[in-house]
Amino acid sequence: MGRAPCCSKIGLHRGPWCTREDTLLLKYIQAHGEGNWRSLPKKAGLLRCGKSCRLRWVNYLRPDIKRGNITPDEEDLIIRLHSLLGNRWSLIAGRLPGRTDNEIKNYWNTHLSKRLISQGFDPNTHKPLVVQQDKNKRKTTTTNNSDRTSKSKLIVEVSEKPKIHLPKPIRFTGTTSFPLPRNDSFESDQCNTTSTALDKPWSGFVDCGNNDRGNMAGFLDDDDHDDFVNVSDFECRSKFLGSEGDSCLEKLYEEYLQVLETNHDADLVQVGSVDESLLIW
DNA sequence: AATACAAGCAACCGCGGCGTC
DNA sequence: AGACGCCGCGGTTGCTTGTAT
To answer: I need a surface site. Which of A94, A174, A178, A246 has the fewest CB within 10 A?
Structure first.
């Protein structure tokens, strides 16, 4: 299947967006809605490729984007979701209202993965790192940033694991009710987590305390979901990726939504006011 | 104050999935 | 069935800002 370039790149602007470009894009989308990214730049009077416009909108201009630091509760949720979903940032972002996949990905790479490593956990598997004595079997890894600069001081040892070829991740389509559309905003960052995932990052969704907390991170505590207890990452992912896993996770997510519903009203007031104060236009 | 280094983040790139013809 | 076009995703890059020397 051939893949045409997204657009002719001759004469198109690249790099950082200026205020004027932002305004043009914003006004066009406000008037016509998003979509048709290929033709949008021309119609909006922008010398950008459609991809660039989409990215700018999704990651910066969208009105429902929550600005400001990632809260500890959001961190907690990101870690737990990552333990379950892996690097599927868009799926993770779909569960953090107002946060973009890019933001979460960056935050993970710059903060959370390093923190997990410093606490002795493999950020990929969320399991404790194993220090092996045999140097021949040892593999040193660095963080992404460090790889780029080769100046890392964060060198860790990870256990050599047999390669497991996971089934390809499933991209959810509109026919699946599980994922929230990006624009779905249930306006809740108010989970009152009492123990962070960093305490036991390998535990994924399992060791979340009791449901009485009524927090987001604990929404998988239900006994129905013991499938995820003490299973390897591979098993966990396989369950998720398989048809059985889909329905299971869908069920879990419904419970999650119910939890959010309980805090919905209060959240709307608080988050709404914050968002309003942070709007730049 | 100047320079070097590190960290953070916005943006780009290429790939793959899906819909249409 | 295959070609094509569009869209969205994850990985990566490189610029900007902050901090240390």
So the answer is: A174
